[in-house]
Design brief:
heterodimer; A: 314 residues; alpha/beta; Rossmann fold; Alpha-Beta Plaits; six-stranded mixed beta sheet; four-stranded antiparallel beta sheet; 9 helices; B: 412 residues; mainly alpha; D-Maltodextrin-Binding Protein, domain 2; 2 domains; 6% strand
């Protein structure tokens, strides 16, 4: 049984098509990344999943059943636009949001305290929300999403605006939750950030799905033709015939090798050539293309021909 | 339903706890009570208790005037009589006037024959003291009429009987036995209703805008329906208004029933609030609040900021202002055709029908029909408002125009 299953979902706002014939499924216990540039339809898709808006056509199933509001108690949702009651005290706020998700006040309060301890913000508990720093507010919001122990956690751009420390804390918590058997879906436009976390991804571009599947499958479809090097000294090895193109970031070089279909590109001769030139090499790594490179390769050149997607912040 | 209750509860307690609520709840009755007390005090004060001197060679007239001014119905003055005046009397009196021992003196020059009136010269300390001046003028007229009648051979008792003020007995007028204060209390309640509906209607809109700007609604929408959110908001904010009005009404009833005001002012001033008036006040207040707050909810959902709301709030103010203007012909004739017609416009029903129930005699059929009409209107407005709300709260950025709003109504 898939936790989330979308079939041929379409949504348009007036003349603007936000989601065009989108289908994908999320298996239990996966970390699923919904990726795409700004305005590609990520938020519109998520809003339909939790019934804030209704698709024009197509079906959405949560927990193996057609969408029904009663399942929302099993879903934790962190919207892209964070929002809390500014004047309310942190604990009142968390208890209120917990109650909306079907908890009783005592359980909500207990869990909220436990979470505040876990995320190291116990000193904020009795303060008003407006008196907290932005990072703390983000944590409060994060807690409010998880208070009712949802089986499906949906986070829209969870890393935007987080400092590296909090981002790491959030990633660690998400990884723990996945280990505990929860299903996690998050959207982001920063593909580099999530590459290492996701089991599965769906890539959206201009309202259409361009790529979907498990991270490993997708990557294995691409030849390991990228070379990452940290070098100093003689750079003349960059003229080697196996190199298709390269980017030189003074000391760090990213190389794309020439590929022929069916043949694993060979980086050995390049390495030998560099050593022969006496170049000092501190790193030499052959990798798959990054998600971002795959994305660019798939959609061709990313021509930002769609700057209109603003009014609904889709 | 549980969610509506949660939202309403939060809204209610968060608002009740604010300082502005406490301040308003205390300040408004203080202001109103102060106004009433002050008014009564001033009314009491208008009984002039000045100290004056009457100078006349006609001792009889001076004594009569003294009696009238010292023991009259509206005056409690202290009157000295100087009769007949000496050569330096005027000088002495002017000196006392300057020393502020006297508030004024009246110099009466008797007439040379009975066909000419005596001459009265009033020299006040302050020309602004129109109350004393009025009292003296009134007393003089009474004294002179009495004197003339006595001169013409009328019995003194007959004269007194003739001079008695006529009392209009209106105790048979049914419920309006105290029509002046009945009118007063109806008027006060009218403004209370107007004010609270306006204020709390706007509060609903404001609270929606607040949630829009803080983006909290999207968190809420993940578990509850927009309709539940709107209903919770309207109920929560409305309960705050009801609490406030309840406190005010209770204070008013306590104050008037214990005749605290009467004791404080020495007059028998009271605000007659019948049970029916209170019941209808609550019914029409609730209906009016529901109608206007659902309009306000739709307005709040359409806009992004208080400034934008200000431009739209004429939709709230205009019907209420219409009620206010129509008072000028509803009050003189509460059962007339115009008043009846206006009381059936649903947007005016809560205020005008309430006024008519307080002041006139609308039939039960009319009251029932107007309430039914209002309920139907509220239902329609709620339906429209919830659709606008549902789409509107997800919209940021530019203000929607009319065709866009009409399109929202079609969204499922």
């Amino acid at each position: 049984m898939a936790i989330v299953e979308l079939q041929n979902v379409c949504k348009a706002y007036g003349a603007k098509i936000a989601v065009d014939n989108l289908s994908f499924r999320i298996e239990p216990g996966t970390m699923f990344g919904l990726l795409g540039p700004n305005g590609s339809g990520k938020t519109s898709t998520i809003r339909m999943m939790i019934g804030i808006t209704v698709p024009d056509s197509g079906t959405i199933q949560l927990f193996g059943k057609p969408f029904d509001r009663s399942v929302l108690k099993r879903v934790g949702y962190l919207p892209e636009e964070r929002g809390l009651y500014k004047k309310m005290k942190v604990m009142d706020q968390l208890v209120f949001l917990g109650q909306l998700h079907g908890l009783d006040a005592i359980t909500a309060s207990k869990r909220a305290h436990a979470w505040c301890e876990r995320l190291q913000i116990t000193e904020a508990i009795h303060k008003k929300t407006e008196d907290l720093s932005k990072g703390m507010q983000q944590k409060i919001q994060f807690i409010s999403t998880l208070l009712h122990e949802p089986d499906l956690i949906i986070m829209d751009e969870p890393f935007s605006g987080l400092d590296p420390v909090n981002a790491t804390l959030l990633i660690d918590t998400l990884v723990d939750l996945r280990k505990a058997g929860k299903t996690i879906l998050f959207s982001t436009h920063r593909m580099d950030q999530v590459e290492k976390m996701c089991d599965q991804i769906a890539l959206i571009h201009q309202s259409k799905l361009v790529l979907a599947g498990s991270m490993r499958e997708i990557k294995s479809q691409y030849p390991r033709n990228r070379v990452q090097m940290n070098v100093t000294g003689d750079m003349s090895f960059l003229q080697h015939p196996t190199i298709e193109c390269y980017k030189d970031y003074s000391g760090h070089v990213e190389i794309q090798l020439r590929t022929q279909p069916g043949v694993e590109p060979d980086a050995q001769s390049l390495l030998a050539d560099a050593i022969a030139h006496g170049t000092h090499i501190s790193r030499f790594e052959v990798t798959e293309p990054t998600l971002e490179e795959i994305f660019i390769e798939t959609v061709g050149t990313v021509t930002e021909t769609n700057p209109t997607g603003g009014s609904l912040d889709a | 339903m549980h969610n509506v209750w949660l939202i309403a509860k939060r809204e209610y307690f968060e608002r009740i706890r604010t300082k502005s609520f406490l301040l308003m709840t205390i300040a408004i009755p203080l202001l109103m009570g102060g106004g009433i007390l002050g008014g009564a005090m001033v009314g009491h004060k208008t009984q002039s208790n000045s100290h004056i001197a009457v100078v006349s060679s006609d001792l009889q007239m001076a004594t009569d005037l003294q009696t009238e001014l010292e023991h009259g119905k509206h005056t409690k003055m202290v009157v000295d009589i100087i009769s007949p005046p000496g050569a330096d009397t005027r000088k002495v009196l002017d000196g006392e006037l300057a020393d502020k021992q006297l508030d004024g003196y009246l110099w009466i020059t008797p007439a040379s024959n009975s066909h000419v009136r005596p001459r009265f010269l009033w020299t006040p300390k302050s020309r602004a003291d129109i109350v004393t001046r009025g009292a003296i003028s009134e007393a003089l007229r009474t004294v002179m009429t009495t004197e003339t009648l006595t001169h013409q051979g009328m019995d003194k008792n007959d004269v007194q009987l003739l001079m008695q003020p006529v009392e209009l007995d209106s105790s048979q007028a049914g419920k309006n036995d105290d029509s002046e204060s009945a009118f007063f209390s109806a008027y006060v309640l009218f403004f209370l209703m107007y004010f609270v509906i306006m204020l709390y209607g706007m509060n609903v809109a404001r609270s929606i805008i607040e949630e829009k700007t803080s983006r909290i609604f999207e968190v809420l929408l993940a578990t509850i329906r927009p309709e539940e959110m709107m209903a919770g908001k309207v109920i929560g904010v409305g309960s705050v208004g009801l609490t406030q009005v309840g406190i005010w009404l209770l204070t008013a009833i306590l104050l008037t029933s214990t005749s605290l005001v009467a004791q404080a002012t020495g007059s028998n001033f009271h605000v007659p609030l019948t049970a029916m008036q209170i019941v209808f006040f609550v019914v029409f207040f609730l209906l009016g609040y529901l109608l206007y707050s659902s309009i306000a909810a739709a307005l709040g959902a359409m806009t992004n900021s208080e400034q934008e709301l200000q431009q739209l709030n004429m939709f709230l103010v205009m019907p209420l202002a219409l009620c206010m203007f129509s008072l000028s012909f509803v009050i003189p004739n509460p059962d007339g055709a115009a008043a009846t017609a206006i009381s059936f416009i649903p947007f005016c029903t809560p205020l005008i029908m309430y006024m008519r129930i307080s002041m006139g005699h609308p039939s039960w059929f009319q009251i029932g029909a107007s309430i039914l009409l209002m309920i139907a209107t509220i239902y329609a407005v709620l339906w429209l408002a919830s659709r606008i709300y549902r789409v509107g709260i997800l919209m940021y950025g530019k203000k929607p125009n009319l065709p866009e709003i009409l399109r929202w109504l079609k969204y499922s």
